[in-house]
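Quick entry, no commentary yet.
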Amino acid sequence: MANRQIVLDRLPGAEKLAPGHFALKDGDVPSPGAGEVLLKTRYISLDAANRAWMQGATYRSALEGGQVMAGGSLSEVVESNVDHLKPGDLVFADIGWQDYGVAPGRRLQKLPDLKPETHLLSVYGIAGLTAYFGLLECGQPKAGETVVISAAAGSVGSIVGQIAKIKGCRVVGIAGGEEKGRWLTGELGFDAAVDYRSPEFKRQLRAAVPEGIDVYFDNTGGDVFEACLFAMKTHGRIACCGALSQYDGAPPPHGPRGVPGLIVTKRLTLRGFVVMDFADRNDKALADLQGWVASGQLKVTEDIVDGFENLPAALIGLLHGDNRGKRMVRV
């Protein structure tokens, strides 16, 4: 059997990510050794972090030219040399953009039998858990407070806003374009939406939060972060989840200005996090998420692209903001 692989043929550096940075190759199907599991990929998760890994080491090693593109996947066990997994089990695995991969069994956990299975990559996967812990643990919203989310139509942001509504907050989403704004307010129940692409963005933001922001969930960094920072209330909290505006292309010419003094005078709390920080509490989070989905309080939006060969274009499109909700590729 051939093992299709998409390789990061060369690093993009300061240029925008393009299809030419990738190459499609055929490799061998690996054989699992002692304590290892052979996996077959069903769906590959696409996230802005895929691009960030090309810039250098983060919470994982930096990507290098010539290696199989990194990424998480919903995969099926084909062969198992561990006791707790058997053929047919589903796991979340970090085996990259390829049909087959081998992973240490100790790093894998059988996923529950939930339908549709794509929810295991979205609301019950990293996106849902990131939204849950980032908002509730880092943002600590209280009923009646104003919560603002950047990249609000994306996989994490769209869930953050709905959880904030469940907790009794007033929710404002920042997204690109009027159409996404209408979707946030009409379909997901946000109280207001602001278009960061509009030349009137800052005026729109001020109008949407006339009394200021209690909790800001930041997925983008850059100018949007700066605008929200200056709209924060005293004792406001900022959950720093990502910096999408700085991942693709040349870095911005400057960072937010006047930050140290503002943080002090407004007594702000800024907290960066990654979802693995809260892994010991996943069971409680998943129980809450499943309950909200079952009750209809939390709507799940998935953007599924068909075809392994479409992975590069699908990631590039995500970086351009083409998606609503969680984007993944069905292999």
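second:
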Amino acid sequence: MVPTSSEFSDLKSGAHGDVVLLVTTTLARLGYLSAPSEGFDSVVEDAVKALQQDRGLVVTGVVDAMTMRSLEEARWKLGDRVLSYLPSKLMRGDDIATLQTRLSELGFHTGRVDGIYGPLTFEALKEFQKAVGAKVDGSCGPATVMALMRLVKTVSGGAPTQLREEAKRVSRGPALANKVVVLDPSSDELDRELAFDIAQRLEGRLIALGVTVFLTRSSAKNPSDADRIALANSANTDLVISLHADNYINEIAHGVATYYYGSEAHSVRSVVGERFAALVQREITARTDLLNCRTHAKSWDLLRLTKAPAVRIDLGYLSNPGDLKRLSDSTFRETLVESIMIAIQRLYLSSEDDAKTGTLRVSDLRRAGIRQN
């Protein structure tokens, strides 16, 4: 059993002991190591980095709480245990992601393939059990697993869930009026003021176009990540935008990057989130001289657990003198805000109504009648 986050401190190169042995045993079982070890050496560090890369985590080689949780989830294969809906402590694991994928392929709506046994997965499994004449209890035991295995896949890659996400985006129409956007400014000490200033500027622009906006924090209140996710999930949200600036030990690192939900381990990604991330990245790099550090699929909780498409934008490196100078300039911040605004609108435009990257302005949205008065 991999220890929980309450039972360990971060593990890094040079560590020894039983916890390292447990971690390396799991890494070996998953094929990242040839054999377990009680010592955390460079080989173990490389294995941890490979796991983090595959699981959409930050690649550090350090086993932190999120990496430990991913190790715990990765060790389960469908059929290893009975899966049940436990509202007080939701079950997590790759076996659940496999279950969600199979149910989705058969046309049962589990919500996002996230490896978490939530209420949608519970209801989808009961519908499947009813359809195949199995005991309808919402628990996935040997009989249910066998029924799933017997059925031939009709759709691959979790496409129905992705199509539902895309269909919802299209059905909401091109107008920004009546959309609901959650802005999540960083609360980290180094970038909290920058992120909150840009969030407030963006909030004002969006409200002027008829958007309902929620900020996950204020200048005085700093809710937990779980509270931020809960706010986004309770607001009938169309889009979640998390705003940050990056830091690195080497001041040479610079540029803008955008992240969306995706997991190679689960072979799934947010279609709308990926599209919006690409639009944001293209608009910012077309309108500024920030280096394009591209878009990336990650399985961070904010991206993974929000029901609506979510992206995180790292707007530059505060540890880089050039990026810091740009981000400290009010005019530059306004350019970032307009870039994000246009990306939001382009997300909801049909392909024939869309424009080239870097050409639209917020004033164009009003003249085109996209804002509903």
